[in-house]
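Intended use. Records like the one below are meant for learning the mapping from a protein sequence to its folded structure. Do not use them to infer anything beyond what is encoded.
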Amino acid sequence: MTNTAIRYTPEFKQTLIDLHEKEHSFKELHEEYGPSLDTIRRWVQAATVIAIDHQGTAVTNEQFKQLQKENRRLREELDILKRAAVLLAKRWDILLLG
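Structure written out for the chain above:
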């Protein structure tokens, strides 16, 4: 069985997002360009600016989710390193006092 999913280029997605921002409805975009209503809606939602960072750069919903995921991963790594440091400190004490 082959994967028959259509892959759209980032440029195509951005074009539809821009058209939606220029007052074209999801239905119009679907009828003219082909992607499903839900697909176009997801693209627009992912590209929606949800905040402006301290440097004045727009942060999209998709970027925010990626940052949350990276933050979660980094916290897990930090927790692992803290645990390893405690274990090493205990072993070092045993060697010095032992």
